[in-house]
C-alpha cells in the first residue's frame, strides 16, 4: 500500500489533521506544498531556494490552506483590509520556502523515513479509520474529497516526517542548567509591590488657559493633522440575501442531501462532557522526571478519590492553562476529536466517574466525565438549521444573479432609478463618507463598498456588483468632497481641544515635578497624599508583579519599562518621574515577595521540562532563521504586484 501512501502534511493539517487537542487548545496549521514529482519547469517557478525551484501550484496550495485557516478564524470579518494587513501571500511564500530549506537541511544530515514509519503514521490518522482500524477505502475517499491523490499525500507526509526528524534532532541538543532554571523561576515568581504618587492629566484640562494667539500658533504648526479625508456620496442598490431568502423553499431531497454530505457535523454520535487535570511531561523525558510527575499526579488522584472537588483541583494543579482556569472543563466532544489514549479512557467512563492516570504524549491526565449524550434523531434536530443554511445559500446566488442583471441594465440605461424600478427596489442615498465611516444610518462601514466607491467619478459613474458579507451592492456616483485643510474658524473647537490637552499635560508634569521636589526637601509621602488641597495627587496601587509581567492595568501600554524601573529601585528610594498614559507617577517599593524555593525544589523537574520546551522552540526558530539568512532565496520579480 506504500505507493498509495504519500503527500501533503499541509493539506493534512488544515483539512484532515484539523484535529483540535481541546485540552491544550491548539489547532495545527502547516504549509501547503504540492508534490514535486517530475520537477518544476523553470517558467512555472515563483521562487528558488538554493537553486531549487518552487512551483506556482505549490504557492497557491499554501495560500489556499492559510486563507482557509484565517477564514475559519475571522469568518465574515475577514475583509479586504484585514487580508491586506495579514499579507497572506507573503506568509505563504515564507512558509513554503522555509519548508524547502528544512528539507534540504534534513538531506544534509542524511535523515530518512522508513516505509514502516510512513505507513504507521498514515494508518494512525483517525480520519482514515473505521472502528479504530485503518480503512483503505476511507483513505482514498477522504483524499479524493481533499482533491489529493494517494501518491501526493504520501510524498508530502514523508517530507513532513523528515522535517519533524530534523526538528527533533536540533531540539535534542538543548540542555537546561540548574542556574538557568533558578533564574527563570525567580524571574517568574519573585514579585514586587510598589505604590505611586499619581498625577492625572484630566483634572488639569479645566485649569488650562491659552490665548487666541496660542490657538493660531498651534493651528499653523499642526495644520496637516486637521486635514479631512476624501468623502464621497453615492446612491446604491442593495441585494440583500436575508430578505431574498424568504422567497426560497428548499425541497426535502435538498435537505436530506445536505444532511448526508455534512452528517459528521450534525450527527456527533456519542458525546461526552469531561474535565481533566494535566501533569505535563515529555515523552522523551528521563525515567526519574517521569516518576516525579507521576507521583504528583497520583497524589492528586488520591485526593480526588477521597472526595476533593475536581474543578478546584484542576484550577490548582492542571498544567493545561486553557482549561485549568475553567476547572479543567473541556465541554462536549465526540470521537475523533481527541488523541486516541485520551479518547479511549474518556468514552469508557460513566457520568461522575474519575479515571486512573492516563498517559499521552502530553503527560499524565486525570479525567472526569460529567455527562454523556447521544442524539436520538439528529436529522430532525438538524433540519431547521439546514433549511436556514440552504435558504441563505440559494438567496446569495439569487442576489448575485439579480445584481448582475441589474448591472447589465445599468450599462444600457445609465440610470439607477430606472433599473431599480424594474424590480421595485429602493434606491438608497448615502451620507458623505470616508474609508472606515458608516455609509449611512442603516449601513455600517463596508470596506468592499468603500474601496470601490472611492474609485468612482463623474465619468466612471457606476460600479460593477460588489460582493460583501451582507449581500451585493451596485453604486452610482453622486458627489465627491475632496480632502482639504479646514480654516481655523471652521475647526476652532477641535483646535481648542488639542491645545487644552497639550496645556493640561504640561500642568500635570509641572505638578508631579513639584511633588518630586517636595520629596527631595523631606516631605513625607503620606503627607503629600493627605494634602489634597495643596496637591492634585492620587495613590497608585498596582497588584504585586514579577519581572515577566506583560500587562499591568494601571500602566496599560508601557508595562515593560514600568517593570524594569520598579525592579531597579532600592528599598526606601524614590523613582524618577515616570510617564503613563495620560498621567505621571513617582514610585517607591512597598514590599518584596521572594520565590518559594521549597516549592521550586518540589517542582524542579517539571519546571525543567517546561523551560526545556520553551528553549527548544527558541533554538529551532533561531536555527531556521539562520538557514534563511544564509540561503540563496530568489523570488520572481513582481510576484505579488
From TrEMBL:
Q: Give compartment(s).
A: Cell inner membrane
Where does it mainly reside? Answer: membrane
Q: Which residues cross the membrane?
A: 12-32
Which cellular component appears as one GO term in the record?
A: plasma membrane
**Gene3D superfamilies the record matches:** 3.10.50.40, Porin chaperone SurA, peptide-binding domain (1.10.4030.10)
Q: Which InterPro entries does the record cross-reference, listed alphabetically? A: PPIase_dom_sf, PPIase_PpiC, PpiD_chaperone, Trigger_fact/SurA_dom_sf
Extract the Pfam families matched here: Rotamase_3 (PF13616), SurA_N_3 (PF13624)
Q: Outline the extent of the PpiC domain.
A: 269-371
Q: How is the protein disposed in the membrane? A: Single-pass type II membrane protein
Provide a Gene Ontology MF annotation, just one: peptidyl-prolyl cis-trans isomerase activity
Q: Does the keyword Chaperone apply?
A: yes
Q: Does the keyword Cell membrane apply?
A: yes
Residue ranges of coiled coil: 491-521, 590-617
Record's keyword terms, sorted? Cell inner membrane, Cell membrane, Chaperone, Coiled coil, Isomerase, Membrane, Rotamase, Transmembrane, Transmembrane helix
Cited SUPFAM superfamilies:
FKBP-like, Triger factor/SurA peptide-binding domain-like
The family note in this entry says: Belongs to the PpiD chaperone family.
**Protein name, UniProt field:** Periplasmic chaperone PpiD
Q: Which organism is it from?
A: Vecturithrix granuli
Amino acid at each position: 500500500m506504500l505507493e498509495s501512501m504519500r503527500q501533503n502534511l499541509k493539506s493534512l493539517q488544515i483539512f484532515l489533521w484539523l484535529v483540535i487537542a481541546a485540552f491544550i487548545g491548539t489547532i495545527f496549521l502547516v504549509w501547503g506544498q504540492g508534490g514535486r514529482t517530475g520537477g518544476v519547469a523553470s517558467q512555472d517557478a515563483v521562487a528558488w531556494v538554493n537553486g531549487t525551484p518552487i512551483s506556482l501550484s505549490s504557492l497557491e496550495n499554501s495560500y489556499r490552506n492559510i486563507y482557509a485557516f484565517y477564514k475559519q478564524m475571522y469568518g465574515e470579518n475577514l475583509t479586504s483590509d484585514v487580508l491586506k494587513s495579514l499579507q497572506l501571500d507573503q506568509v505563504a511564500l515564507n512558509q513554503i520556502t522555509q519548508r524547502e530549506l528544512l528539507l534540504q537541511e534534513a538531506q544534509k544530515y542524511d535523515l530518512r523515513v522508513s516505509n514502516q514509519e510512513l505507513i504507521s503514521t498514515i494508518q494512525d490518522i483517525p480520519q482514515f479509520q473505521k472502528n479504530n482500524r485503518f480503512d483503505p477505502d476511507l483513505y482514498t475517499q477522504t483524499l479524493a474529497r481533499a482533491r489529493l491523490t494517494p501518491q501526493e499525500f504520501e510524498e508530502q507526509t514523508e517530507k513532513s516526517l523528515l522535517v519533524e526528524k530534523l526538528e527533533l534532532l536540533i531540539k535534542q541538543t538543548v540542555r537546561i542548567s540548574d542556574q538557568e532554571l533558578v533564574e527563570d523561576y525567580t524571574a517568574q515568581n519573585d514579585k514586587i509591590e510598589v505604590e505611586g504618587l499619581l498625577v492625572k492629566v484630566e483634572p488639569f484640562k479645566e485649569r488650562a488657559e491659552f490665548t487666541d494667539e496660542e490657538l493660531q500658533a498651534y493651528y499653523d504648526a499642526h495644520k496637516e493633522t486637521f486635514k479631512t479625508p476624501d468623502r464621497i456620496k453615492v446612491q446604491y442598490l442593495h441585494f440583500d440575501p436575508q430578505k431574498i431568502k424568504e422567497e426560497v423553499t428548499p425541497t426535502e431531497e435538498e435537505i436530506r442531501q445536505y444532511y448526508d454530505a455534512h452528517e459528521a457535523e450534525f450527527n456527533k454520535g456519542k458525546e461526552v462532557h469531561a474535565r481533566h487535570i494535566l501533569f505535563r511531561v515529555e515523552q522523551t523525558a528521563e525515567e526519574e522526571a517521569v516518576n516525579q510527575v507521576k507521583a504528583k499526579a497520583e497524589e492528586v488522584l488520591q485526593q480526588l478519590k477521597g472526595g476533593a472537588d475536581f474543578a478546584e483541583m484542576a484550577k490548582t494543579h492542571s498544567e493545561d492553562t486553557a482549561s485549568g482556569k475553567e476547572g479543567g472543563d473541556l465541554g462536549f466532544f465526540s470521537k475523533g476529536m481527541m488523541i486516541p489514549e485520551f479518547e479511549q479512557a474518556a468514552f469508557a467512563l460513566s457520568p461522575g466517574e474519575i479515571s486512573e492516570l492516563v498517559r499521552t504524549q502530553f503527560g499524565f491526565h486525570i479525567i472526569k466525565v460529567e455527562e454523556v449524550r447521544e442524539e436520538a434523531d439528529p436529522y430532525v434536530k438538524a433540519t431547521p438549521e439546514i433549511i436556514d443554511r440552504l435558504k441563505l445559500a440559494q438567496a446569495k446566488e439569487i442576489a448575485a444573479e439579480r445584481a448582475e442583471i441589474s448591472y447589465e441594465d445599468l450599462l444600457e440605461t445609465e440610470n439607477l432609478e430606472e433599473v431599480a424600478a424594474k424590480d421595485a427596489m429602493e434606491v438608497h442615498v448615502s451620507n458623505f463618507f470616508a474609508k472606515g465611516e458608516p455609509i449611512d444610518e442603516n449601513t455600517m462601514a463596508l470596506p468592499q463598498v468603500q474601496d470601490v466607491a472611492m474609485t468612482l467619478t463623474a465619468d466612471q459613474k457606476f460600479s460593477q456588483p460588489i460582493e460583501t458579507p451582507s449581500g451585493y451592492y451596485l453604486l452610482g456616483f453622486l458627489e465627491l468632497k475632496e480632502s482639504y485643510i479646514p480654516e481655523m474658524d471652521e475647526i476652532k473647537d477641535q483646535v481648542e481641544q488639542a491645545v487644552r490637552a497639550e496645556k493640561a499635560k504640561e500642568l500635570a508634569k509641572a505638578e508631579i515635578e513639584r511633588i518630586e521636589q517636595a520629596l527631595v526637601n523631606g516631605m513625607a509621602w503620606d503627607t503629600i497624599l493627605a494634602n489634597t488641597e495643596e496637591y492634585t495627587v492620587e495613590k497608585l496601587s498596582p497588584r504585586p508583579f514579577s519581572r515577566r509581567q506583560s500587562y499591568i492595568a494601571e500602566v496599560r501600554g508601557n508595562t515593560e519599562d514600568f517593570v524594569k524601573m520598579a525592579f531597579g529601585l532600592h528599598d526606601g528610594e524614590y523613582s524618577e518621574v515616570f510617564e503613563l498614559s495620560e498621567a505621571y507617577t513617582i514610585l517607591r517599593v512597598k514590599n518584596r515577595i521572594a520565590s518559594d524555593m521549597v516549592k521550586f525544589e518540589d517542582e524542579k523537574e517539571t519546571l525543567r521540562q517546561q523551560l526545556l520546551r520553551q528553549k527548544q522552540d527558541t533554538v529551532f526558530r533561531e536555527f531556521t532563521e539562520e538557514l534563511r539568512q544564509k540561503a540563496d532565496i530568489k523570488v520572481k520579480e513582481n510576484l505579488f504586484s
